[in-house]
Write a structure and sequence with these properties.
Layout (H helix, E strand, L loop, with lengths): L1 H25 L43 E4 L7 E3 L4 H5 L6 E3 L2 E3 L7 E3 L3 E2 L2 E8 L14 E5 L5 E3 L34 E8 L2 E2 L5 E3 L1 E7 L2 E9 L5 E2 L1 E3 L7 E9 L16
Antiparallel strand pairs: 1-17, 2-5, 3-4, 4-17, 5-16, 6-15, 7-10, 7-17, 8-9, 8-16, 10-13, 11-12, 13-14
């Protein structure tokens, strides 16, 4: 009897779920969320784009970017980059001359930093992979130091922070001289590490008033090291620059993808099946 009651409850709740889904398909009266024109469960709502996710690769196997990525380094060429060097020869030829080999590129110490030729307006996920030298030399800030600069943001520090103490707001994944990372997620020297840096630009109204400060979120080797840190910058675009701090740090698989929070750009729903 008890079992029958249980089965009955399960069947009833199943009917309940089915009824809810059916009502949702038909479109509820209220919007799905404040400010959203679509009703909850609305089948007429445009579909998000289909994206093939990345293959994150490994220490031996190169990673593959997601299908909607703008690739800034594909393993073979620094054509999308220029030098930051202020030396006279750089004025005549601004090509980035860091060493490219075996699917990665490497800082040529004291040759100057490099930056992308293109600037990117709006909100993006930036993906960068890096490895500090397998042979450990130096200590603190002198060990595997480089850095990631995205226009208008503080440096996201690149450093060999595996068993290498330094000031916390200067260790790997720190927002340099501002915030230490939540955790030290560093891999060993010579191993490939990832940064995913999500940049949301300041939102400014027609009167020029900032309605939402710029924000940055950082994941180091997949772990959140900063979440939605607010920044005072009003910059609306940016390039990506990598620091020459005198250490032969390597980089590979660099890409970005635009964050799409605009449903009007989504795909219309498929035609109903007959
Ligand atoms: Mg640095």
């Amino acid at each position: 009897m008890k079992m029958n009651l249980l089965v009955g409850l399960v069947v009833l709740s199943g009917f309940g779920l089915g009824f809810t889904a059916g009502a949702a398909d038909a479109g509820k009266a209220e919007p799905a969320a404040p400010g959203v024109k679509w009703k909850a469960g609305d089948m007429a709502r445009p579909r998000p784009p289909v994206v093939t996710p990345p293959d994150w690769g490994s220490n031996d196997k190169p990673a593959v970017p997601p299908s909607d990525a703008i690739v800034l380094f594909d393993g073979t060429s620094l054509a999308k980059w220029k030098t930051d060097s202020k030396k006279p020869e750089a004025a005549a030829d601004d090509a980035a001359k860091w060493k490219v080999e075996n699917g990665y590129f490497e800082v040529v110490p004291h040759g100057g930093g490099i930056r992308t030729r293109e600037k990117f307006t709006g909100d993006y996920q930036w993906h960068i992979e890096w490895a500090t030298p397998a042979e450990v030399k130096g200590s603190s800030q002198g060990r595997g130091n480089s850095g990631v600069f995205i226009g208008g943001l503080p440096e996201v520090q690149v450093l060999d922070s595996y068993d290498n103490d330094t000031y916390p707001d200067g260790q790997a994944s720190a927002l340099y001289n501002r915030h230490p990372p939540y955790v030290n997620a560093s891999r060993k020297p010579g191993q490939w590490q990832t940064y995913d840096i999500i940049v949301e630009r300041a939102k400014v109204d027609a009167e020029g008033k900032v309605t939402q400060k710029a924000r940055v979120t950082v994941l180091h080797n997949g772990l959140v090291s900063h979440h939605a840190r607010e920044l005072d910058t009003r910059a609306q675009d940016g390039d990506l620059a990598l620091q020459d701090h005198g250490n032969p740090v390597r980089f590979r698989n660099i890409w970005l993808r635009k964050l799409n929070n605009d449903e009007s750009a989504n795909t219309p729903p498929p035609a109903p099946k007959k």
